[in-house]
Each structure stands twice: as C-alpha cells, then as structure tokens.
Amino acid sequence: MLVTILSTIFVIGILVFFHELGHFMVAKWSGIKVEKFSLGFPPTLISKKWGQTVYAIGVVPLGGYVKMAGENPGEEAKGEPWEFMSKPVWKRFLVIFAGPFMNFVLAAVVLAGIYFFRGKETDAVFIDSVLEDAPAAQAGIQPGDEIVEIDGVKIRSFMQLVEIVSEKIEEPVVVGWKRNQSIMTDTLITYKGYNIMPSGDSIMVGKIGITAKFVYEKQGLFQAVGAGFSQAVFYCKKIVEFVIGLVSRKTDPKQIGGPLFIGKIAGDTARSGFDILMEFLALLSVNLAVLNVLPIPVLDGGHMIFLGIEKLKGSPVALKTRLIAQQIGIAFILILIIFVTFNDITR
Known about the structure:
Oligomer: single chain
Order of helices and strands: HEEHEEHEEHEEEEEEHHHHH
Shape: elongated
Strand content: 15-25%
Structural class: alpha+beta
Radius of gyration: 24 Å
Helix content: 40-55%
Number of helices: 9
C-alpha cells in the first residue's frame, strides 16, 4: 500500500511539475509577471517568495497551477506591460501551449534515458515459460525459443502475437519458431482463455500457453533520443485514436481510468522495477499532453481556442462568454471525474 501511495505521488508530482514549469518558463521569457507557482492545490503546506513569485506546495497533490498577473477573466487588468493580457496573442498562445509541450518533451526524454541506460526492447519474441500440456508444449516449443511467425505473419512483438492468437478461439494457428538457428513449424489448436480488460471486464480469447521473455538492446545516445521521440509520437497517435474512438462511440468508456486506476498501475509498475515505472510515467505524460490540448474550456486547449478566436476577430472573447464557457467546462470535468472515479471503484 505504501509503495502504491508513494509511487502515485511521485508520478503525478513529476507530471504536474513539468507541465507547470512549461507555462512558467515561457511566461517569464515573455515578460509576464508570475505571481505564484504551486505544486499541489490549497491549503498551502509550504510557501516561499523568491523575487516576484511565491513558490508553494499544496496539501492536495493531484495538480498544480501557475498564477500570472492579469490572467483570470474576472481579474481587473491595469494595462501593465507585464500582465498576461498585455502580451500579443502569439505569445499568450505559446505560454498556454508550453505546458502540454513540456509533457511531451518529458516523455521523450524519459524514454530516451531508459533506452540509453537499460536498452530498448528488441523486435524478437523469446519464450520465457510454456504452460504444461498447453498447445505450445505439445508442439515442442521450449523456453528460450524465438517465435518468428504466426499464420505467415512475421512477429516483431509479443503484443502483435497476442493480437493474432487471441482472435482464434479453439481454432488452428500456424506457428513458426527458431531454436539454435533452426526453424520449426507446427499447427496448434488454441484453447479458450480469458483476459481482464482495463475496464475490469473479462473477454474470451484464444491462447497457446506461453509467456514472453523481454530482451533489451542498449542504444547509442542519438539512437536512444530518436527512439524516445518516436515512441512518444506513437503514444500520441494511440491516445488520439482512443479519444476519437470515445467520441465515435467505438471505444468502451469503461476503459477510461482516473486517479485510483493510475495509483494502482503506478504501484504495480513500481514493484516491477524503476524503469517500468518510468515508462508508465512517460505514457501518462503524453496522455496529459494530448488531453490538455482538447478544446474544452478550463483546459489548455480551451484557452488556445479562445486565443484563436481573438486573433480572427481582432479582440478578446467577451468576458461573459468566457465565464459561461468555463462554467460549462468545469461542469464537464466534474462529471468526468465522477464517472472515472466510479469506473475505478467498480474496476
């Protein structure tokens, strides 16, 4: 339990810190006065003023914020050059965009570090164990063998193998594997098994009775940086596909997780190893980046939409309109929080 709590605070703290750091750094570069930088929400636990800014740590570790002068819609602007609204639209846009962008950069850097120090998982799929009397065992597949082909498809990851085999329930699959440079092939009849989905539901799948052994290959510095960036982009694509699936109702909303689900996964990954926890952190960081640019008022994406409208019409969006939009956005976020919390509890 303690590992789960500490790993959750660590992961969320890192994500929030770098997100707000992005806003903070670009705001300072733009000449905007930053009144407060808080990691966590009030009540304030620790605070210290350094220069123009109060740096604080809040009791609630589920977020944070950067308070810039003249930023809030209801705040009276004095027209000072260091106020948020006194800056041109493009600078304000960069300040807002910097938070999600920093989360993407964090993910790419973390992944590059993992690939450089630990190595990147190879494309090969090696067998770690074979279930006794399972189809794989009956075919003669042994630990240490490499699965190279399923039904004529070259296998490059265990996930790819699972996707192909799981669709064949009590059906034949042609498996090719390598041992000591020798290629062997056999037809296996899958057996009926069950997988637990993130929603907590179990689905029937086909299995052949093997587990994979992860093999890592160390990368050079430039290789690792390139691989980290590519993997972060891959995460972005998958998350965008997931969001599109939710909107088009092709994805089950029960798969959405909240803080409790994040805490559980953080604890599980922490027990598996620090590198696995950091990979989870990178995935969450990309999640935060993508979800924050969604065009929902109160999120960064909503603010960027307002700035885009301001640029087109030549004047800021009316205060009343912004306030109504933000109230709708807050209501939506609250409903979403209730929904994901219910998902987490039932899961």
